[in-house]
Amino acid sequence: MLKNIEKLKKMAFAKGDENYRFMNYLKGINPSKLDSLFVELSEKYLTEDFCLSCANCCRSLDPRFSKGEIRSLVNELEISMSEFMNKYVDLEKSDGYILKTNSCPFLHENKCQIYTNRPHPCRSYPHLDKKIMAHRLIEVIDNSSVCPVVYQVLEDLKEEFNWKDENET
Ligand code: SF4
Ligand code: SF4
Questions:
Q1: What angle do CA 20, 138, 111 make, to 5 degrees?
Q2: What is the pTM of this model?
Q3: Which domain holds residue 20?
Q4: pLDDT 10s digits, 21-56
């Protein structure tokens, strides 16, 4: 599996159109079968060891924190809510609080320093185990340039279905 993130970005970009055509193909697959394949393949690749060697999602995405998650976190960090807000939070959106930097301040040497209190989007990433993945394929394609596991799962699915890109030039 690709570990070089710059290479991953380039390859995912190069496969952009192909992946969108593949997405249309996947929409015709039985949704339960597709969900099972996503789970099976992500379990195969999404190992603790691999994530510890990567941590690219923690450097690239901006997970939303709910108020409740921040409350738990300030207890763990032994700081006040206002200190936390001033130090870490950029703005509040309808789906939660966004931190000031895309690269998460709680990542240290590829390890999450608030692992037990990490917010829900971090627990769920890269979101390959959701129901009716057929409705989330654009998100999957977007994540293929961030997460090597997502990229590899898409490539494996092409093999699983023996899918060839007929529009390939
Ligand atoms: S980007 Fe993917 S492989 Fe890398 S740490 Fe995040 S979930 Fe794991
Ligand atoms: S809270 Fe932890 S898991 Fe979430 S982005 Fe930050 S370092 Fe990564």
A1: 120
A2: 0.94
A3: 5-58+128-160
A4: 999 999 999 999 999 999 999 999 999 999 999 999
What pLDDT does residue 54 have? 96
Residue 39 burial (C-beta neighbours within 10 Å; 0-12, 13-18, 19+) = middle
User: How many folded domains does the chain comprise?
Assistant: 2
Flag whether 151 is in a domain: yes
* 30 and 81 both lie in a single domain: no
Pair (134, 110) in one structural domain: no
For ligand 2, what atom is nearest to the CA of residue 118? 1
DSSP 39-63: HHHHHHH--HHHHHHH-HHHHH---
Q: How far is the CA of 126 from the centre of ligand 1 (A)?
A: 7
How many angstroms separate the alpha carbon of residue 58 from the centre of ligand 2?
5
Q: Which tens digits make up the pLDDT trace of 125-163?
A: 999 999 999 999 999 999 999 999 999 999 999 999 999
Are 115 and 75 found together in one domain?
yes
Pocket test for ligand 1, best of 38, 51, 143 (most atoms within 8 A of CB): 51
168 domain residue, yes or no: no
Does residue 125 line the site of ligand 1, with CB under 6 A? yes
